Amino acid sequence: MTTLRNRKAWWVLLAAIAVTLGFPTVALGDDQDGADTPAAILEPVTQIGEEALPASQRNPIPFIDPAALPFAAQHPILFEVFPRPEPAPLDESVPSITLRNPEPIDPPPLDELRIVLDWYLSPQHAALLVAQARGDFTRYGLDVTLNVPADPSLPPKLLAAARADLALGRQAQLHMLVDQKLPLVRVASLIPTPLSSLIVAAEGDIDTLADLAGKRIGYALDDSLSPILSGMLDQYDIGLDDLVLDYVNFSPAQALLEGRVDALIAPLRHVLPHHLDEEGLRVRGFSVEAYGIPRHDGLILMANRNTLASQRSEIKRLLNALEDATEWALNHPDDAWELITGHYPTLATAINQRAWPDTLRRLALRPSALDAKRYATLQNYLYERGHIASRHPLERLAVDLHAP
């Protein structure tokens, strides 16, 4: 009899669980011994799925209280183990949908760099101009300003006084200024070949450098005279004192066209002959390397050694931008010309267009790369001829910021 009662209790318990879980209709019939069992039929629980709603609008899952079933009164002890759970509160602070677009993320601010050019805008500045016009500087997080000096002698002075972050110049000029204790250091070579030459009228009376004695020579840069011109004249036993020197500032072509000078010495061999030819004057040039001057970088980018450490990241990114711009310009010379003349209309002249192909051929593919031997050779040349008082360690003169 006890066994039969236990079996009935288990049947009731299982029926309650089935109803709670929403199982199909279950009927309790006779057990295997044929004893009577409750005849109540348990109705199934039907749950209708709600439409997808935000969390704040959903109803909790329905709870069936087993103690309220018809046969609960007959077996109360079976339902004492079913306490009614309290529904968890809904978290209203968590939205279920996005009601608006996310706020745009502001780009990081650009790092500023001020560069003073060595001359007015010219094809020799191709790497800088293309990088600016093509957006390479911006892509590397830089806001670069290119400034034309009022006088071609000013760029290194402005840089040494920390009134500029970078300045263009020439390798021979750098050696002289470092020897004068200016805190300058080369960080890039934009044109790694000499640009200086002596230019004379083709129909004039100067056939060789020996004919220069007593002639009037136009110049715009001090380092064009010493060590460049003085070095070219060494083998002819002619000194600068044997010449009449005329400072022509930014107008060397006009000085020769007007007959104010007999010859010009300037780092403009890539553009000045084209300028004079456009004006109807045929000229002849004497390249400096053909007269004993060691090969050197014709156009370099200098930094202030005292601030280089704090600007190292910005300058390295600038060099990356210059390398990208140079490679693109060499691969797309016509597009590069259209780009810079559209961005800088003053460059769109017949003279500059003629000079463009010759200038592109001279650009450094890797501006940051340093030829240590070239700097040591030119320094020894200058020291042995008394142009500088001391030899200086290479790191005082030039650095390769991309070196491992």
Automatic annotation (TrEMBL):
Residue stretches in coiled coil: none
GO annotation (BP), single: thiamine biosynthetic process
InterPro entries linked: NMT1/THI5 (IPR027939), SsuA/THI5 (IPR015168)
Domain SsuA/THI5-like: 123-336
Gene3D superfamilies: Periplasmic binding protein-like II (3.40.190.10)
PANTHER family hit by this protein: 4-AMINO-5-HYDROXYMETHYL-2-METHYLPYRIMIDINE PHOSPHATE SYNTHASE THI11-RELATED, THIAMINE BIOSYNTHESIS PROTEIN HI_0357-RELATED
Protein name: ABC transporter substrate-binding protein
The species this protein was found in: Halomonas salipaludis
